[in-house]
């Protein structure tokens, strides 16, 4: 007897969930520690709970624990990681600042993007101490994002029981969204808000179709309470709940239903979350602690609220797709990517309007004067109310706080946004084409997310790669040893001629001999005997990602350094490259020996012939 075959929709959903989890693990394992939005403050909240056993209070220090947030996410993380031994103070990040950090705004390259020195031995697999706490807590973020994908699928099935393709398309839009996947790899409660919104809108969608009872309203109140304890942005869920209460009472022609349902929702919310809002009033003077947020993050002056509004709105839209916040870890795609995404969104919106105007049977805009409006219309209105409420809250936040225009603040409505986008896109295509449209859209989103991980995060923040044998053979060989620390095996320059105002990329092939007791700094100069140093760079190896006191003996690695020439750099016919290691504290250089060593008193490797013209 053959085993029963799983329905295709479940197989597709399983594949979407598996890919989401795998990519989420990839982001979590490879996103550098504490380079991302607010992660230090969220981590310190967890450590504060573990060290002191009580809730922190928000101060004006922006890098302190993000104590204005409800404690649910952090309690889960604290319980999960309480067994880990973390040396050092629980009140600060136990990482060294990269002394050569120099984030160049708008520069898409890999040049010293790390604020902290990354990939230290304890921060690599198998993780220990602080790094282990961070990576385990990131699994909590991944759990909530996976829950959100499941809830989105459930909401779509409750809305369109006959639309299995509709459901997996909507779930995939959430699962493969680059910003969603990026946030799964952080210590941050945004994916908790994503899950809270998706789960509650699933319950409303399901019970708007099946009918409400007092017990079901109480469960909605419980879900609302959990959402509020995870992130205060769950307050926007009051809007769709209120609409559902009114519809239920109106359909039953009984105001008692409104009172009973409202009470069933309010009792668990008040009992489980009321203390939090009372505490905020006592500490900060308002129930949402917005005053504390503004004091810590910087309230936006009234005169600046409308300044550069088009740019802020553009940033807001970019954040919906996956542009990271302002700071070292800025994961922004090319403008044409956002232009294409905007076109897709506009096509989806136009499709929604088309459905309304043509009164398609899969989304009938029934008249409110009918005795019993069609359930699907009410459900769509509920989703629309959630989207508009979340958008209004996010825009209000953007107008009141510095750097408040971030697309991740729309996370509570992402499930509903996915449903509208699927309905709008499919409005333009016959049924037989819809699977192809869904597949192409999800593959494009998956490709963008994959590029963010493999093409942006890993090259910028990973340990410098080991060279292939072929690449090493093609490079110009060198014979030089720096102290007893490293050999310089070969080099490659990207051009034999460079111009004032230009950039010369120098690739150096290293072999590690020993790990140093203290971190040494690389110096690299473009040098002419006639004019002296034309330009220079001082940096840690790996551009902050592979300090010498974290080197792995006997490992070869390849590192590229960009030498930026000033506009008035001297024009010389011949220049050489000088390279060495020195102690930044004492200024003392390590000695250099070998055929390509310079004078012993200079302690540098000298090689290359570059013209500045």
Write out key terms for the chains shown.
613 residues, alpha+beta, Immunoglobulin-like, 2 domains, 10 strands
Please give a structural write-up.
With 613 residues, the protein is α+β, with helices and mostly antiparallel strands. The chain folds into two domains: 145-458, no CATH class; 469-612, Immunoglobulin-like. It has 17 helices and ten strands. It has helices at 8-30, 39-52, 72-81, 129-159, 164-175, 178-184, 190-210, 214-230, 238-251, 255-284, 290-297, 309-321, 335-358, 375-400, 414-426, 434-461, 469-474, and strands at 476-482, 486-493, 497-498, 503-512, 521-528, 532-539, 556-564, 572-582, 592-593, 605-612. It has a five-stranded antiparallel sheet. A five-stranded mixed sheet has the order 3-10-8-5-6, with no helix packed on it. The termini are far apart. 44% of the residues are buried. Residues 104-108 and 361-373 have low confidence and may be disordered.
């Amino acid at each position: 007897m053959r085993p029963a075959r799983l329905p295709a929709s479940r197989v597709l959903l399983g594949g979407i969930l598996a890919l989401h989890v795998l990519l989420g693990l990839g982001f979590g394992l490879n996103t550098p520690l504490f380079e991302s939005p607010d992660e230090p403050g969220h981590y310190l909240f967890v450590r504060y709970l573990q060290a002191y056993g009580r809730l922190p209070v928000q101060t004006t220090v922006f890098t302190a624990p993000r104590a204005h947030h409800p404690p649910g996410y952090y309690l889960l993380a604290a319980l999960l990681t309480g067994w880990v031994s973390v040396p050092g103070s629980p009140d600060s990040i136990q990482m060294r600042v990269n002394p050569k950090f120099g984030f160049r705004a708008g520069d898409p390259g890999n040049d010293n993007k790390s604020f902290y020195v990354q990939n230290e031995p304890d921060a690599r697999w198998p993780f220990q101490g602080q790094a282990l706490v961070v990576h385990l807590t990131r699994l909590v973020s991944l759990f909530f994002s996976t829950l959100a994908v499941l809830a989105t699928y459930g909401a779509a099935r409750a809305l369109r029981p006959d639309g299995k393709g509709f459901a997996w398309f909507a779930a995939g839009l959430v699962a493969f969204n680059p910003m969603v996947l990026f946030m799964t790899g952080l210590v941050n409660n945004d994916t908790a808000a994503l899950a809270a919104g998706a789960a509650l809108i699933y319950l409303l969608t399901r019970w708007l179709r099946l009918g409400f009872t007092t017990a079901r309203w109480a469960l909605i109140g419980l879900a609302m309470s959990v959402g509020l304890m995870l992130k205060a942005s769950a307050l926007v869920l009051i809007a769709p709940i209120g609409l559902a209460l009114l519809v239920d009472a109106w359909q039953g022609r009984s105001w008692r239903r409104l009172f009973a349902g409202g009470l069933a929702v309010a009792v668990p919310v008040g009992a489980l979350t009321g203390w939090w809002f009372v505490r905020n009033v006592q500490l900060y003077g308002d129930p949402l602690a917005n005053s504390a947020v503004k004091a810590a993050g910087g309230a936006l002056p009234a005169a600046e609220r409308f300044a550069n509004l088009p740019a802020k709105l553009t940033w807001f839209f970019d954040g919906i797709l996956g542009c990271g916040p302002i700071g070292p870890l800025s994961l922004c795609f090319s403008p044409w990517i956002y232009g294409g995404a905007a076109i897709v969104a506009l096509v989806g919106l136009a499709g929604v309007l088309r459905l309304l105007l043509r009164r398609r049977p899969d989304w009938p805009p029934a008249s409110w004067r009918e005795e019993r409006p069609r359930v699907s219309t009410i459900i769509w209105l509920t989703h629309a109310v959630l989207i508009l409420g979340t958008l209004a809250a996010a825009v209000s936040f953007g107008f009141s706080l510095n750097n408040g225009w971030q697309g991740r603040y729309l996370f509570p409505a992402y499930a509903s946004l996915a449903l509208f986008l699927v309905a709008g896109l499919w409005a333009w295509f016959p049924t037989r084409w819809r699977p192809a449209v869904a597949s192409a859209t999800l593959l494009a989103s998956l490709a963008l997310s994959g590029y963010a991980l493999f093409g942006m995060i890993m090259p910028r923040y990973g340990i410098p790669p080991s060279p292939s044998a072929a690449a090493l053979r093609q490079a110009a060989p060198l014979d030089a040893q720096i102290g007893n620390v490293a050999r310089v095996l070969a080099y490659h320059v990207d051009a034999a001629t460079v111009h004032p105002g230009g950039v010369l990329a120098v690739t150096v092939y290293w072999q590690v001999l020993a790990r140093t007791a203290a971190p040494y700094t690389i110096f690299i100069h473009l040098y002419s005997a006639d004019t002296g140093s034309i330009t220079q760079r001082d940096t840690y190896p790996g551009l902050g990602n592979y300090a010498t006191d974290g080197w792995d003996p006997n490992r070869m690695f390849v590192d590229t350094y960009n030498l930026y020439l000033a506009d008035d750099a001297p024009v010389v016919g011949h220049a050489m490259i000088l390279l060495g290691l020195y102690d930044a504290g004492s200024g003392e250089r390590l000695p250099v020996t070998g055929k390509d060593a310079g004078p012993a008193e200079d302690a540098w490797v000298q090689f290359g012939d570059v013209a500045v013209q």
